[in-house]
Every structure is written in structure tokens, then in C-alpha cells.
Amino acid sequence: MEAVNLLSSNRYTEKQIGYLFISVLVNSNSELIRLINNAIKNDLASRNPTFMGLALHCIASVGSREMAEAFAGEIPKTLVAGDTMDSVKQSAALCLLRLYRTSPDLVPMGDWTSRVVHLLNDQHLGVVTAATSLITTLAQKNPEEFKTSVSLAVSRLSRIVTSASTDLQDYTYYFVPAPWLSVKLLRLLQCYPPPEDPAVRGRLTECLETILNKAQEPPKSKKVQHSNAKNAVLFEAISLIIHHDSEPNLLVRACNQLGQFLQHRETNLRYLALESMCTLASSEFSHEAVKTHIETVINALKTERDVSVRQRAVDLLYAMCDRSNAQQIVAEMLSYLETADYSIREEIVLKVAILAEKYAVDYTWYVDTILNLIRIAGDYVSEEVWYRVIQIVINRDDVQGYAAKTVFEALQAPACHENLVKVGGYILGEFGNLIAGDPRSSPLIQFNLLHSKFHLCSVPTRALLLSTYIKFVNLFPEVKATIQDVLRSDSQLKNADVELQQRAVEYLRLSTVASTDILATVLEEMPPFPERESSILAKLKKKKGPSTVTDLEETKRDRSIDVNGGPEPAPASTSAVSTPSPSADLLGLGAAPPAPAVPPASAGGGGLLVDVFSDSASAVAPLAPGSEDNFARFVCKNNGVLFENQLLQIGLKSEFRQNLGRMFIFYGNKTSTQFLNFTPTLICADDLQANLKLQTKPVDPTVDGGAQVQQAVNIECLSDFTEAPVLNLQFRYGGTFQNVSVKLPITLNKFFQPTEMASQDFFQRWKQLSNPQQEVQNIFKAKHPMDTEITKAKIIGFGSALLEEVDPNPANFVGAGIIHTKTTQIGCLLRLEPNLQAQMYRLTLRTSKDTVSQRLCELLSEQF
After folding, report:
1. Which residues contact 658 (CB under 8 A, 6 or more apart)?
2. Do 331-522 and 749-862 come out as alike in CATH topology?
3. Which end of the chain is more exposed for a tag (fewer CB within 10 A), N or C?
4. Per-residue CA distances from 272 to 183, 225, 277 (Å)
5. What is the distance between the alpha carbons of residues 812 and 804, in angstroms, rounded to a whole number?
6. How does the protein's chain sit in the membrane according to the entry (predicted)?
7. Bridge-partner residues for 731, per DSSP?
């Protein structure tokens, strides 16, 4: 209480002690907080700069939500007031920054935002430095509010970099003019794309060129503080050049400058140079310039003593790899792998596997590389790696014989890693017949070679080898008796592991009772796998997180393909659907196959190149290609992937009960770059708004690379409806405005409640609904195979009860249910009559409301 009393004193020393005590010891939940807040308000209103400074420091030190609620509206006024002293402006800007970081929802955006931008023109550099920190943080969340800061920041930066150190004496640090302010201004400019105004853009280019030129000048001091300040500005300028990725000359100059740091005696500079060059390597303008430093990077990999620098060297080799140098880089990484630190071996293995697959011109080289990888670092070869090599061998006829021969030779080594046994067992089981003609690799020798490894392997590998043995029974009848003896042995039939025991029993029985033709059918070769994105790449993205470096091909594709069209890769780590186990899907890639390629659609301004510098949100885009097909697929299901392109994946999970529903929409960022201003909007036509009520919760406007955010939608059906709402997404990706629209699958049948009925009750109700306007009938050609089980599943998924033994014709399907709305309940009966000979259906729907009959008939007809 004494400390609170000191706040009312007019003596500086007493007030300072009071504020110091409160800042350090008073809890934000204290009963005295109201008295403290009143004292702070009095000091802020006093216009005494010393007292105002103490009050602002106290608010920033405590930084509680209660402080934000009390002062978040007052501090901006103090900041932009014309009569506020410079020292108070500095404190106000930093205090507001502190409150925004702790309670961003309590800091109101208003008229002051446009005025605070003009503090970048203030004469006092301390005010400019504090204001730049504040504006940078605010612009990351609200870029549109602060886009006028770009031209002012460029103007201020230009004045700093072109001034002599004597011009800014109070803010010159070891002959470097205002280095902290320069870094903050460069960081602020990274919140925006390159300026559209040619004059501003030209001035910024001049600033960046000046910074690069100064880096080449001899140092004005030998002290480390001088070089640190100078390099801090340089690296931030290079980060801005990389972020804009639009000036080839600057990108190449930045690459050359970084190349000089690769052999610098300072470890931190070598690390930063390698890290920045990784990003430069993904630019089509500077990729070739980065490649010129390949020998220096390889040498760093071999001689560098710091493990973190070696890891960055591996990242850079991976980023600069293309078809011209792939074999050299892969060979160097394999060589380094033998002595690499254990902490980075798994990552190197993943990168070698990705590069070998991606740039393999001759797939025999790919097979050799992966087997070498398993030999050198088998413990670090994940399942995704050997799954992938098997997929590629199965899909490519030209490499199958070579792969069988190579794994057979590799298995002859006295000590083989278990992963090699897995690959060998799988490939010989499929393609061992391709090398069986050679006496040195006869069927019996192949079997004996594999079986010699059997007792050393784990249970999953033994299970795989048992499957290989039964494949051998089909491929090589001459070894059938030998394999049956192994399967019949007590070590197999009485194995303690139930999986091995079951396989041995079933395989032995299959080889005994099945005819040759049945055996050949059951054990035929694996069919080719569908082409999907490599699971190894997905694992690397997940391991590296949002900072994963995008390669050159991906960058070019992102620049040249419209986000609503073109080939779509399979989802990586943001899938909203579950992935089957490896036993169900060999590659562990249980994602949906990519949608077929379609011509680019001009959605909201066209492709990425057309809309690079757009700042204004455009109108709602037309529906994305394939949206109608995806919408139709959700009529009879509630969960799955609704939309996907190379940037974004939208998944749905929903449940409905009577006239209410809840839908969870999952937005997955498939890239390594943040989505900014991420704004999903649900759009309902006027007539739909009267019949369907939607309530949504807002989502975070920033979606990190590789991350997924969720949005909940509460749904209430007020009356029957026909149209569906549209989900519109607008966001910024890499400075480019994106606009995507899809139909949200909220359809009338979602409010179906199934109703069980006996045959007599059904037909009695059927006759009651005999008015012509109550019945809708549609006769149509089957679009899909007429499978009974699939038809039943679709009718149940549609929402009605499937009534068994009701229709006199057992081939027909009968359903019943009630559509629930807020105002009424509508009984529905349906009858589906298939004609297998004609490949036709007749669908009849009877409800108590003609519009409901018509809509349900339209929706269900599309499913067959």
C-alpha cells in the first residue's frame, strides 16, 4: 500500500521507487490493481514527460491483460498526439507493442494506425526505431492497414544508407550508421511484395545495391563490433532480396557475396551464408550462381568442425542439386554419411533417397544408390525409403531384372542389414524368376540365401520372408517340397508369435490344396502402384517443419500454374483423412489419388504471374475446377478431402442430428511458406439464408507452412432448401493474392433421420402419398458398376433406413426416413429398381412436399 501511495507523490525519486516496486512485486490479480491503474491514468494525463515515461514503463513491465484492457485505447492517442515529447513517443510505441504481443485482441485498430505510419518520417531516430518495431508486428497480422509504410520505410532506409557515419553521430555504431534501425526497416519491407510504384521500387533497389557495395569496401575498423553491425545489415538486405525474388542482378550479387563468407574464419558467418544460400538455390534467377560454389560446400562438409555448419552444408547441397550435378552430390553425401554425426544421419538418408529418385536418368543407378544407402546407414533407413524403392522397381519393367540380380549379390555378404533382407525378400519374391536361369542364382540357391538370414531377423521381416517363400512355390515348383518342409516345421507351426504361426499354417495349406492355376492367380505379381507424391519427401517436410527449403522445380511450378488448375500433387502431411497402416498400403501413402489435370481457370484474376503484385481483395472467385464432382461425392458421406491443389488442402468432418449439424473444416497449408490474411467466408444466396442458418468461428489469419487450422461451423436447417452454400478462401501466399471457391456439401438429405418400417406400414404410407405432386420419378442410365453392396451403402449414406424384405422383388431397394427442419418434419419414402440387363435404374421418391421430392431425387440420382 505504501508503494501505491508513493505513486501519488510529485517527487521523481519517490514515484520511481513506487513504480519499481509495483513492476517487480505486485501481482496482476492484486486487490490494489484498481488504485494502481488510477495512479497510472493520472500520470498519463499529467503531460509531464518524466511521469508519463514511468507510467508507460510500468504498464509494459507488468503487461497483464488487465493493463491492456485499461490502457490499450489510451496509449495510441498518446503515441500520435502532436504535443507528445519524443522520449514519451518511444516509450508509448514499445509499451503498445508489448500489450499487442500479450493481448492482440484488446488493441483496437482505428484512425491512429494511419497516423502511426508517419512516425517513420520523424526527425528523432529513436522514435523511428520504436515505431518500426511496432509497425512490423502489426503489419504481419494486418498488412492492408499498414501498406503505406512501404514507401516511407524505403525513403528512410535510403537516407540512412546514403549518409556518412558523421551525419548520424548519435546513432552510428562503430562507423555503421543506425544499424538497428536499418535491420528493422528491412524486416518491415519483408512483410510486403516488391513495391508497385516504379520510383519506390527503383529507390529500394539502389539502397540494396549500396548495401552490397559497402560490404565490398575495406573495413573502417578492425573491431568485431564493426563487422557484426555491418554484416547484420547485409544479411537482412539479402533476406529482403530473397523474399522479393524479382531482381536477377541483385540475387546473383547476393549469391556472390555469400560465397565469399563460405570460407570466412568466423563460424557464425559461414553458418549464415550456407543458410541464406539454401534459400537462394530455390530461385530460378540465382540457382546457377549458387551451383558455382559446389566445391567449396563439399569441402565444408568434409572439413568443418561445427556439426551445425555441416548440417547446413548438407541442406545447401540438397537445394542446389539438379540433373547436371545429381550424381556428384549424391556420391559426396554417401561418402560423408559413413562418418556423419548420428544426429543428422536420418535426414541425410532421406535427402539422398529423394535426390536419387528425382534425378535418376538410369534407374539402375537409383537401385545401386539405395542399396548402398542401406549398406552404409541401414539403421537410419526408414520404412518410407525401402517402400519407395520397391514401388519404383515394380512400376518399371526395365529395372526389375537388374534389381533382382543386384539384391541377390548384396545378400551374399556375411552381414546384411535387416532392411536389405526386406528389400531382397520382396524383390526376389516378385522377380526372382528373371535371374533363375543362371546356375549361380537358381531357385534353390535364392531360397537358401534368404532362409540363411531368417533366424537373425525380427518378426515383421520373418513374416515378409514367409510371404516370399509362398511366392517361390508359385514361381519355382521345384522348390515346393523344400519350402513346405520349412513351413511344416515346429518352429513355424508352433511359433510363439501368432502372426508367424498363422502365416505358416495358411501358406502350408494353400500350397497343399490349391491347384496350379489357383496358386498362380492368388500369388500373381503385384500390379503397378498408382503414381503419387513420394512418402519420403512428405517425411522430410514433416521432419524439417515449416522451414523446409522448396526446390527449384517446385518454385517454377508455383510461379507458372494457376492454383485452381493443373496437375495436383498428393497431400503430404496435412491430410484430413486417416492413412491406412503399411500392411494395407505398401507405401503408407493412403491419400486420395490426385485429381485429373484440367485447363487453368481464370479465377479472380488468373494465374500467379498475372496477380503477383495485387494488394486488393478481389471479388469471389468462380467455383474451382472439379468442385461439382467433389460436391457430389459428399452427398452420401460426411468426411474426406473436399478440395486440393498444390498450395492448399481442405478436409471436412461433419455430423448431423435432426435439423442441427456441426461441420469441422480443416485448412492445410501444403507449402513451406506462411499463408497471410487467411480469410474463409461462407456465402449463402438470399433464398438460402432464409432456410439455412450457419454460424462460424473465425480462424487465425496466419497459417504456417506445413500447418493445419480448423474451423467449426454450426448448422441449423430452418426449412427445406435447394442450393448449397459456397466457401470462399482469400489469402496471400508469397506476396501473391489467392482466391478459391468451392461448394460446401450441406444438402437437404443431411437432415434425414432413418425410420424403420414393416412391409405393411410402408405400402400403406406409400399409398397415402399418391398425389401426383408428391411423387417424383427418374429413369436413368447407370454411371457406375451396378454393385448391390455399394448401392446399399450409398442409400444408407444418403440418410434413409434401408428396409429389408419389404419390396416383393428382392432386387429392388426400399428406404424410409424423415427430413427434419425447424418448422416441420417431412416423411420420405424411396424405391430404387435396378435393371441389370439394360444397365438402367428407376428411382421413385414420395414425400409430403413436392420440392423435397424433386431435390432428393436429383441428389440421389447422381450417385448411381
Report:
1. 751, 753, 820
2. no
3. N
4. 16, 17, 8
5. 10
6. Peripheral membrane protein
7. 738
Calpha distance 846→829 (Å, rounded) = 5
Measure the CA–CA gap between 335 and 339, rounded to whole angstroms.
8
User: Model confidence at 169, in pLDDT bands (50, 70, 90)?
Assistant: low
Name which of 636, 597, 604 is nearest 622 in CA terms.
604
Contact assessment for residue 406 and residue 368, using Cβ atoms and an 8 Å cutoff: yes
Cell 522451414 belongs to which residue?
Answer: 547
Question: What pLDDT score was predicted for residue 265?
Answer: 87
Amino acid in position 482:
T
CATH superfamily, region 627-746:
Gamma-adaptin ear (GAE) domain (2.60.40.1230)
Distance CA 429, CA 614 (A): 57
Distance from C-alpha of 549 to C-alpha of 775, rounded to nearest angstrom: 60
Residue 574's closest CA among 671, 655, 481? 671
Give the pLDDT confidence score for residue 561 in this predicted structure: 35
Report whether 683 contacts 620 (CB < 8 A).
yes
**212 and 194 Cβ atoms separated by less than 8 Å:** no
* Residue (of 157, 165, 161, 162) closest to 221 by Cα position: 165
Q: What is the mean pLDDT of the chain?
A: 82
Three cell numbers at 236? Answer: 537482412
Q: For 734, left (φ over 0), alpha (ψ -120 to 50), or beta? A: left
pTM exceeds cut of 0.70: no
Cα 515 to Cα 511: distance, rounded to the nearest angstrom: 8
The 10 Å CB-count burial string (b at 16+, else e) for 567-593 is: ebbbbbbbbbbeeeeeeeebbbbbbee
**Residue 488, pLDDT above cutoff 60:** yes
Which candidate, 419, 509, 421, places its Cα nearest to that of 470?
509
166's grid cell: 558523421
Assess contact for 19 and 36: CB atoms under 8 A: no
Selection from 152, 145, 147, 148 nearest residue 128 by Cα: 152
Contact between 836 and 844 under an 8 Å Cβ cutoff? The reply is: no
Nearest alpha carbon to residue 769 among 844, 846, 831, 824:
846
Q: Give the type of residue at 445.
A: I
Classify 329 as helix, strand or coil.
Answer: helix
331-522 has which fold? Leucine-rich Repeat Variant (1.25.10)
**Cβ neighbours of residue 633 closer than 8 Å, sequence gap 6 or more:** 640
- Options 3.30.559.30, 3.30.310.10, 3.30.30.10, 3.40.50.150; CATH for 749-862 is 3.30.310.10
What SS3 state is found at 783?
coil
Q: How far apart are CA 132 and CA 259, in angstroms?
A: 31
Vertex 448, ends 445 and 450: CA angle to 5°? 110
Distance between CA 804 and CA 807 in Å, rounded?
Answer: 8
- Residue 24: which residues within 8 A CB-CB, separation 6 or more? 61
**Backbone φ, ψ for residue 368 (5° rounding):** -60, -40
Measured between alpha carbons, how far is 555 from 527 in angstroms, rounded to an integer?
33
Greater pLDDT, 584 or 375? 375
- The C-alpha atoms of residue 806 and residue 818 are separated, in whole angstroms, by 18
Q: What are the residue ranges spanned by the domains of the chain? A: 1-108, 331-522, 627-746, 749-862
Contacts 24+ apart (CB under 8 A), 199-205: 200/150, 200/151, 200/154, 203/154, 203/155, 203/158, 204/154, 204/157, 204/158, 205/247, 205/250
Distances, alpha carbon 71 to alpha carbons 7, 51, 55, 86, 515, in Å: 17, 16, 11, 20, 86
Predicted confidence band at 357 (pLDDT cuts at 50, 70, 90)?
confident
User: Which DSSP symbol is given to 699?
Assistant: -
